[in-house]
Write a structure and sequence with these properties.
The complex is a heterodimer of chains A (222) and B (355). Chain A has one domain: P-loop containing nucleotide triphosphate hydrolases (Rossmann fold, 3-Layer(aba) Sandwich), CATH 3.40.50.300. Helix content of chain A is 33%, strand content 26%. Chain A is built from seven helices and ten strands. A six-stranded mixed beta sheet of chain A has the order 6-7-8-3-9-10, with helices on both faces. In chain A, strand 9 and strand 10 form a beta hairpin. In chain A, helix 3 packs across helix 4. The longest helix of chain A has 16 residues. Chain A starts with a strand and ends with a strand. With 355 residues, chain B is α+β, with helices and mostly antiparallel strands. A four-stranded antiparallel beta sheet of chain B has the order 2-3-1-4. In chain B, helix 2 crosses helix 10, helix 3 packs antiparallel against helix 8 and helix 10 runs antiparallel to helix 11. Chain B is elongated, with a radius of gyration of 36 Å. Classes of the chains: A alpha/beta (222), B alpha+beta (355). At the A-B interface, helix 2, helix 3 and helix 4 of A face helix 1, helix 2 and helix 9 of B.
Chain lengths: 222, 355
Amino acid sequence: MISFEHVRKRYPSGQEALKDITFELSTGEIAFLTGHSGAGKSTLLKLVALIERPSSGKIVVGEQNLAQLGARDIPYFRRSIGIIFQSPTLLNDRSVFHNVAMPLQVCGSYSHDEIGKRVRAALDQVGLLHKENALPIALSGGEQQRVGIARAVVGKPKVLLADEPTGNLDPELSREIMDLFVRFKQVGVTTLIATHDIELINSLPYRRLIINDGVLLEHGHV
Amino acid sequence: MFDKKQDRGRGATPLDRSPKQGIPERRPKTNPAATNRPKPPKVKASGPRLPRGSTGYWASHKLAIHSARQRLQATPLHTLMTVLVIAVALSLPAALQVLITNTQQLGSGLEESAQISLFLKGQTTEGQALALQQQLRDRSDIAEVSYISREQALSEFESLSGFTEALKTLDENPLPHVLVVLPRLDQDKNSIQQLRDELSELPLVDMAQLDMAWIERLFGIIDILQRSATFLSLFLTFAVLMVVGNTIRLLSQNYRAEIEVYKLVGATDAFVRRPFLYSGLFYGLVGSLLAIFLVTLAIAWIAPSANHLAELYQSSFILRGLGISDILSVLAIGATLGLGGAWMAVNRYLKELDL
């Protein structure tokens, strides 16, 4: 579902963030991307989401070779992936409902009823249906992160990218978030989670990709 | 209304669960953005290559108008100031246009009063003069020709000038026969000039005189006014563009977080741009409406004195305000400038963000 072939990324500043990365994730797989801060985890996720372009190498997401997508195709590609950030980047001028509805609004092809149905289904899945009218600022950190996850999955993406999704949460909440990802895996969502929560990684039987100084050190199942 | 196929691939996950009753009834009222009722989707919406221009096109415009309104309402004072600046900038050229139209009206009334005096050669007989009068009357570009015989002219001159005694000392009438030609009303000053030149070539005509010098001066002034108006309009057009551009730029910076989220969840540039374009359109249209109002107000204030002055001159002149076409063009220019300024600003901002 996601494959990297000899991918390099060098920033205009000369910093080499990724050096010759090759790996492959199959459909419905969950993988942890770990490594110290600045090792290149975020860069790798940005390459998958087309926020950055690789300097060289080939990235394929789904059936799509990302090099073939022009700037005009990026929005349509992004609708097939869900992105979750460490800070959930929710907008505080609108309710939880409307935050989650944003990915559906941009498509322009959902009716009002359809949007309502899907948003509530996504909120229900993260256990926040009762908070749909609340403003994000009134929610706890864990709840905000779950709203962010609801927003990422509301468009039913095939790929989920999560950048430190449990970074601000205590172990119990982290575990709840991970349970959500496991549920998405069961319906075929491929998930790549950047984290350095070693405890969490060790408690789950999923593949890990360790990046050190832009080089992929180890990959395989535990 | 919608088939379940939209939800396939999710199997029996909680995503398929119907929402609780009651809540869906309440939401549309409290959330205007959610009241859009587009046609049912025909396209499966997720997936990398969605066809551009989808079924919910109008829905996305409604959404854009809604968020444009919210953004303008969030900074009412700034919105008001922007609209006022645009109104003032647009009302100046509009007022000048009114001034020009009215001066032209004044000028055209005078042009109609233009007449050509044909002084006939000394040896011309009355019969020849009358024949020429008839001949000229048949011309299509001449409305009327009146004949003033030399005797008539002399007695007129006597009674008007009071030089009766002096004239009596002359043994011969020094005045020629005169034909006074009134050109047709629908001609401009160039063709009247041409007519004069043509008439002066006639064998019987000694001299053809067209006294239009002061009308020419008036037209000269109108020309200067018109050029200044064009120049000023260009300047002010540019100013409006900059004002709108700057305002929209500030506005888009205020909504940076929102723009970023929208871009990351797959919004096209057009989607992000749309609310700002509506904001710009709003600035331009409301600004030009206000400009029209200001100019109309100014004319209403000036009109009584102008019309009174015209009465004193026994002129049929009536101060004219903005016509329908003037109003429409002010609106069109305002709208175009608003849209253009917004377009430039948002495009630059999107390029800067580069998401």
